[in-house]
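Hi V.,

You were right to ask for the full record rather than a summary. Here it is.
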Amino acid sequence: MNNNITDVFFDLDHTLWDFEKNSALAFETVFKMQKLELDMSKFLHFYVPINREYWERYRKDEISQKELRYGRLKDTFDLVEYAVSDDLVELLSVEYIHFLPKFNHLFEGTIEILDYLKPNYNLHIITNGFAEIQENKLNNSYITHYFKSITNSEMAGVKKPNSLIFDYALNLAKTTKENSIMIGDCIEADVQGALDAGLDAILFNENNTFVKENIKQVNHLLELKKYL
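Predicted structure:
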């Protein structure tokens, strides 16, 4: 490890903020409001990988924000063979985004690791999520105060893994790549993106998926104490 690290950059969704748990709660709320009788476990079984696929396409600028929000729902309803109108899909996509940041489940160890790091490092966020939504997630989870800067892809004009978003974040944080490290769950966007931009990186590998031996990784956030 680089002993000169002064600034630690975190991804938000799937790294600190428990996206899948909060997403499920948001869908339960919205479906109940609209009186949709769905097998939630079956719906989520299809939605979770579809959402990841749509986010990857969005990250690569293959689809727009609107296409992401509509398509991931439409495709899931089609796969579970639940008939919904286009107007209802549009409504559900809006309501889901409204309720999603209201839930505030964090990964186990989030608060403890932030408390551990904050006295010794400047902490920051770099996220591909939408500005207003991510701000609400941070505020409702009561963790905004830990971070000196928050960079999102709307501000930077590009998304991770584009090196320009890391340059933007470093400039906003008033630090250098040599003194910085990125922590996130996505090997392509967070880890390889940071490494290509000249930062060190650690993968938050909660599901213990196989990665190359040269990639630093943790399976639990508190394991970051081994590195920082």
